[in-house]
Each structure stands twice: as structure tokens, then as C-alpha cells.
Design goal:
The structure holds two protein chains of two kinds.
Chain A (H helix, E strand, L loop, with lengths): L8 E5 L4 E6 L8 E7 L6 E6 L4 E2 L4 E4 L5 E6 L8 E8 L11 E6 L1
Parallel strand pairs in A: 1-9
Antiparallel strand pairs in A: 2-7, 3-4, 3-8, 5-6, 6-7, 8-9
Chain B lengths: L3 E4 L2 E4 L5 E7 L5 E8 L3 E10 L2 E4 L7 E2 L9 E3 L8 E8 L10 E2 L3 E5 L1
Parallel strand pairs in B: 2-11
Antiparallel strand pairs in B: 1-3, 3-8, 4-5, 4-9, 5-6, 7-8, 9-10, 9-11
Classes of the chains: A mainly beta, B mainly beta.
Chain lengths: ~110, ~120
């Protein structure tokens, strides 16, 4: 199963874009990149996912490099409620989500 | 409202006393899974099920049992709980027809303390 590497923590000013990087250099061709976030100890919340094309939804954008070895989650206008731990996950065909340690994002006023 | 529910949300028990944590989803999802979350170890998969009567072990199945008699329910059973099973537990579900591209949705969590 492919592993992911993320910075332990990041800060972002309220209203600015938050760019969260993730390395997944061992990802294989049929594995998807998923992003979830967890606020306090609530259930992880789905944000976005992609295979090889860039994706955008109402919450965020996902930029995947052409070689698929890394990706960036972009929250275009971060708010205080976006403060959370963000997990970059590679999901294998077997369905398991392999959570790493995630990035603790602090959005500051 | 589409959701995954878990009960109880909080539970304190003693070593050896059998308990069941229920999980139910109302989205007609084929795939269901249990995870535990521990400080420093992240979320790890305990068991999963791809459909009714089909279950399989995840990464940390020791000390747990599951069953999938109905599509909507996926209970987690601790036959003889021990203190090392003190943890935060999450149930999750997703469709499975599209495999890994189907989004997995999580329940609110069950915090278990085994004394």
C-alpha cells in the first residue's frame, strides 16, 4: 500500500488560500488520492479525491502532478472553521483508507 | 438525511465484559468498515465488509469480531475487552460498484474506555 508524507503543521491567515502539500511517491496507477479532514475528534469528513486529473468542488481544489507522485489541496479562502487535521490518503482497490499523521492546519485571524 | 450512525457514543466498561458497538447507514452502501484511532498511530482499519455476509480482516483485527447480516448494519463486537482496546472507534461506509473511486463516509465516533 502506498504511503503519504505531509508536513506536521501549517498556519494560514484567514481569507487567504491554504495550500497543503502531500507526497505519495509510491502510488500505483489505479490508486486514488483522497483528502479528508478531522475537526477535534469528530468523524473524518470527506473533502475531495482524484486519480490523475485536477479536481474542484465546492470545498476545495486538488492539484495532482503529472507523475502522480505528489498533490496539493487548496482551500481557496480559508476560514477559522477550516482549522483541522487534514489527511492525504491513497486508497487501494481493496477499499482501505490508509491514514497517515496528517497536517494540522491552523487558520488565524 | 444521509448518514452513518454509531451507538453508543461513549462507553466505559471493565475488562472481560462483552460489548457491542452498533453502526448503521441509510445510504444503501455495500462497503462498510471499522477503524480505531489512537494518539500517534492515526486511524487503522479493524475489519471491513464488501457486502452482506462478506467480511474480512483489516490491519488490527485481534480482539474484535464483526457481522454483516443486513446491508445497513455492521456491528463491532468485543467479546472480552482489554485496556489496550481503549480507543476512539469510527464506522464508515461507501458504495462499492466503482471500487476505490467511491467516497467513504464516516460516523461520529465511539469513545471507549476499558478499565
Amino acid at each position: 500500500d502506498a504511503k503519504t508524507t505531509q508536513p506536521t503543521s501549517m498556519d494560514c491567515a484567514e481569507g487567504r488560500a491554504a495550500n497543503l502539500p502531500c507526497n505519495h511517491s509510491t502510488i500505483s496507477g489505479n490508486e486514488y488520492v483522497y483528502w479528508y479532514r478531522q475537526i477535534h475528534s469528530q468523524g473524518p469528513q470527506y473533502i475531495i479525491h482524484g486519480l490523475k486529473n485536477n479536481e474542484t468542488n465546492e470545498m476545495a481544489s486538488l492539484i495532482i502532478t503529472e507523475d502522480r507522485k505528489s498533490s496539493t489541496l487548496i482551500l481557496p479562502h480559508a476560514t477559522l472553521r477550516d482549522t483541522a487535521v487534514y489527511y492525504c490518503i491513497v486508497r487501494a482497490q481493496g477499499g482501505k483508507l490508509i491514514f497517515g499523521q496528517g497536517t494540522e492546519l491552523s487558520v488565524k485571524p | 438525511e444521509a448518514q452513518v450512525t454509531q451507538n453508543p457514543r461513549y462507553l466505559i466498561t471493565v475488562t472481560g465484559k462483552k460489548l457491542t458497538v452498533t453502526c448503521s447507514q441509510n445510504m444503501n452502501h455495500e462497503y462498510m468498515s471499522w477503524y480505531r484511532q489512537d494518539p500517534g498511530l492515526g486511524l487503522r482499519q479493524i475489519y471491513y465488509s464488501m457486502n452482506v455476509e462478506v467480511t474480512d480482516k483489516g490491519d488490527v483485527p485481534e480482539g474484535y469480531k464483526v457481522s454483516r447480516k443486513e446491508k445497513r448494519n455492521f456491528p463491532l463486537i468485543l467479546e472480552s475487552p482489554s485496556p489496550n482496546q481503549t480507543s476512539l472507534y469510527f464506522c464508515a461506509s461507501s458504495l462499492w460498484r466503482g471500487g476505490a473511486r467511491e467516497t467513504q463516509y464516516f460516523g461520529p465516533g465511539t469513545r471507549l474506555l476499558v478499565l
